[in-house]
Write a structure and sequence with these properties.
The protein is an alpha+beta fold. The chain has 4 domains: 7-207, Beta Polymerase, domain 2, CATH 3.30.460; 209-302, Hydrophobic Seed Protein; 337-466, no CATH class; 469-520, no CATH class. The chain has 27 helices and 12 strands. The chain has helices spanning 7-18, 28-34, 50-56, 73-81, 93-100, 104-108, 142-146, 161-174, 202-207, 217-223, 226-238, 244-252, 262-273, 284-296, 299-302, 304-307, 325-335, 341-349, 354-357, 371-385, 390-401, 413-423, 428-441, 450-464, 476-483, 489-504, 511-520; strands at 23-26, 43-46, 68-72, 115-120, 122-124, 136-138, 157-159, 195-197, 210-211, 241-242, 359-360, 366-367. It has a 6-stranded mixed sheet. The chain is elongated and about 100 Å long.
Length: 522
C-alpha cells in the first residue's frame, strides 16, 4: 500500500532514519491511514531516549515522565532548513520546494501548528491508580511497546524496512548468532517504503469494524479505567462494534470509571458527543454512543441525572405516542442540528429537571412545572463535575435554564430583548438548534413552525435597533442633578436600574417618569 504522508511526517522519519534510530508511526495515526481517513494527530514511537530526540529536534519540549517529546510542525520545517544533508526518505520536487520554503503563504495552508508527539518505546510496570503505571522502562522492541496499548486497531506500527532490518540484525548479534558488525549491504535497500507491524491482527479487526482489547480485557481496563470510555467513544466516532468479551469486561469493570478525574471524563465525553456519522443527520452517532454508555452501566456513574430520566413518562394515557423522559432526551440529542459537543450535552440534559418536578393528576395528566428552573441547577452541578470552564458552564446553564421559552406572535420588543438577555446573544443560534432537537425528539414531524420562524425574524428585527442605556430619556447629568451627587459609581447603578425597568416596559422611557423614579432610587 502506498501511504501518502505529509512532508513534515516524512521529515521526522528521515531525521531519525539518518541517525540510525528506529522510528514508527503508531496508534490512531496508522488506524486512520488504513481506513483512508484524514489523519489529524500524528504519533510516533522510537528507540531514541527523550534527550536524544531533543538533540535531533532542539525546539521540542519534554515535561513529563513518560518519554513523550512534543515537536511542532513549524519547528520540523525549520529544522529541515538547517539540515543540508541528503534526505533518505525521498521527496518529490514539489514537496522539496514546499519543505525548503516554509514561508507565510505555505503556513496559511495549515489549519493550525499541529504538535507531533514522539514517545520513547516503553514497557510499563503495575498500575496503582487505574490510570498511570507505577514505573516506566524504555525498550528497543516495538512489539513490547505495542502490547501495552488499549485496542488491537491502535496497536499497529508503520516503520521503515531498512531500520527494522538493522534492529533485527542487532538482536541476532546480541544473541551471539552473528559475530561481525552489520555491513551496508546487510542493512537492506534504502527506500521510502513503509512496513506494517501488526502483532495482534489489528488490520483484521479494522476491516471487520471491531473494537477488541489487546490481550486480556480486564487487565487493560484495570491498567487505565479511561479505556472504558474510550472504547465506547470509538463506537460513536468510527461506527465500530465492541467485541463481546471486551464489552462484557467493560460492564464488569464499569465502577472503575469513578477513579477517573472529571477533566478526563469530560474530554472523552465531548469527543463522543462530537462524533459525526456521514450517513446520518444531527447527532446520530453521539446518540448511539450515549445508548452504549447506558448499556455498559457507565452513564449512571458519569451522568446519573440522565439515567434517572428513564421510566418517567412524559404524557398521560390519552396520548397515542409518547416517550419517557430518557428516551426523549436521547432523541433530542439525536436530532439537534449542532456539531458543538456543549450544545449536544445541553440537549441531553435539558429535561433532567422533570425528574424532581413530575406531578400526575387523577385523570393521568402529567405536568413538570418549573422543570426548566430545576434543570438549570442540574446544569450547574454537571458543569462542576465535568470541570467545565466558566464560559462553558455559563453557556450550558443558559441553554438548559431558558430552553422552555415562549414563542408568541404577540410578544413585545421588550419581551424579545429579555429573551436575548437571558439566553445571551452569542447563544441564540444554539438555543434554536436545541429547540429543533426538542421538537423532533418529541415526535413532531417538522423541525420548526410558523411561530418559530416569526420569532427568529422578530429577534433579527430587534437586534437591528439595539436598546442600551444611552437610549434612555435621561442621562448621568440628570441623575447627579436630581440626587445632588458628584460623579460616582452610584450614577451608573441608578441608570442600570432604570434601564432594566424600561426593558420590561418601553412605555416607561419618558423623561418625566424616569426623573421621578430617580428620586425613589436614592
Amino acid at each position: 500500500m502506498d501511504y501518502q504522508l505529509p512532508n513534515e511526517v516524512k521529515i521526522v522519519l528521515d531525521k531519525f532514519k539518518k541517525a540510525n534510530y528506529q522510528i514508527y508511526i503508531v496508534g490512531g495515526s496508522v488506524r486512520d491511514l488504513l481506513m483512508n481517513k484524514e489523519v489529524h494527530d500524528w504519533d510516533f514511537t522510537t528507540d531514541a531516549k527523550p534527550e536524544e530526540i531533543l538533540k535531533l529536534f532542539p525546539e521540542g519540549f519534554y515535561d513529563n515522565n513518560f518519554g513523550t517529546v512534543g515537536i511542532s510542525q513549524l519547528s520540523v520545517l525549520s529544522n529541515q532548513l538547517s539540515d543540508k544533508s541528503q534526505s533518505v526518505v525521498s521527496l518529490s520536487e514539489t514537496e522539496k520546494q514546499t519543505t525548503e520554503k516554509p514561508n507565510s503563504e505555505n503556513r496559511k495552508q495549515k489549519t493550525d501548528n499541529q504538535v507531533f508527539e514522539i514517545t520513547t518505546m516503553r514497557k510499563e510496570g503495575e498500575y496503582q491508580d487505574f490510570r498511570h503505571p507505577e514505573k516506566v522502562e524504555w525498550t528497543n522492541k516495538i512489539e513490547e511497546d505495542l502490547k501495552r496499548r488499549d485496542f488491537t486497531m491502535n496497536a499497529i506500527a508503520l516503520g521503515i524496512p531498512h531500520v527494522i532490518a538493522i534492529r533485527q540484525l542487532a538482536e541476532k548479534q546480541s544473541q551471539n548468532q552473528i559475530a561481525s558488525s552489520p555491513s551496508a549491504d546487510a542493512q537492506g535497500p534504502r527506500n521510502d517504503k513503509l512496513e506494517l507491524i501488526d502483532p495482534f491482527n489489528g488490520q483484521v479487526d479494522i476491516k471487520n469494524k471491531i473494537i477488541k482489547a489487546v490481550g486480556e480485557p480486564d487487565k487493560r481496563f484495570k491498567e487505565d479505567a479511561l479505556r472504558l470510555l474510550r472504547a465506547i467513544r470509538f463506537t460513536a466516532q468510527l461506527g465500530f462494534e465492541i467485541e463481546k468479551e471486551t464489552f462484557e469486561s467493560i460492564k464488569k469493570n464499569a465502577d472503575l470509571i469513578k477513579e477517573i478525574s472529571g477533566e478526563r471524563i469530560r474530554d472523552e465525553l465531548f469527543k463522543l458527543l462530537g462524533s459525526m456519522n456521514p450517513h446520518s443527520t444531527g447527532s446520530g452517532q453521539a446518540y448511539i454512543g450515549i445508548e452504549k454508555l447506558r448499556e455498559a452501566g457507565i452513564l449512571k456513574i458519569i451522568l446519573p441525572e440522565v439515567e434517572s430520566c428513564f421510566g418517567i413518562m412524559q404524557e398521560g394515557p390519552k396520548h397515542a405516542r409518547t416517550y419517557d423522559i430518557g428516551e426523549h432526551s436521547l432523541l433530542t440529542l439525536k436530532n439537534t442540528p449542532s456539531n458543538d459537543p456543549l450544545v449536544r450535552l445541553a440537549a441531553l440534559i435539558h429535561d433532567t429537571g422533570k425528574v424532581k418536578t413530575v406531578k400526575i393528576a387523577e385523570d393521568g395528566n402529567v405536568t413538570f412545572y418549573n422543570h426548566d428552573l430545576v434543570g438549570g441547577g442540574v446544569a450547574k452541578r454537571v458543569a462542576d463535575r465535568l470541570k467545565l470552564s466558566k464560559k462553558q458552564a455559563d453557556k450550558l446553564f443558559r441553554l438548559v435554564r431558558w430552553h422552555l421559552f415562549t414563542v408568541d406572535e404577540n410578544q413585545t420588543d421588550s419581551a424579545i430583548r429579555r429573551f436575548i438577555k437571558n439566553v445571551g446573544l452569542e447563544n441564540i443560534e444554539d438555543m434554536m438548534a436545541l429547540r429543533v432537537g426538542d421538537r423532533l425528539g418529541g415526535g413532531t414531524q417538522n423541525p420548526t413552525s410558523w411561530r418559530m420562524d416569526l420569532f427568529e425574524k422578530r429577534i433579527k428585527e430587534v437586534l437591528k435597533k439595539p436598546f442600551s442605556i444611552s437610549d434612555l430619556k435621561v442621562n448621568g447629568k440628570d441623575v447627579m442633578e436630581t440626587l445632588n451627587i458628584p460623579p460616582s459609581p452610584k450614577v451608573g447603578e441608578v441608570l442600570q436600574k432604570l434601564f432594566e425597568e424600561v426593558l420590561e416596559d418601553s412605555s416607561k422611557n419618558n423623561k418625566e417618569y424616569l426623573l421621578s423614579r430617580i428620586k425613589n432610587l436614592e
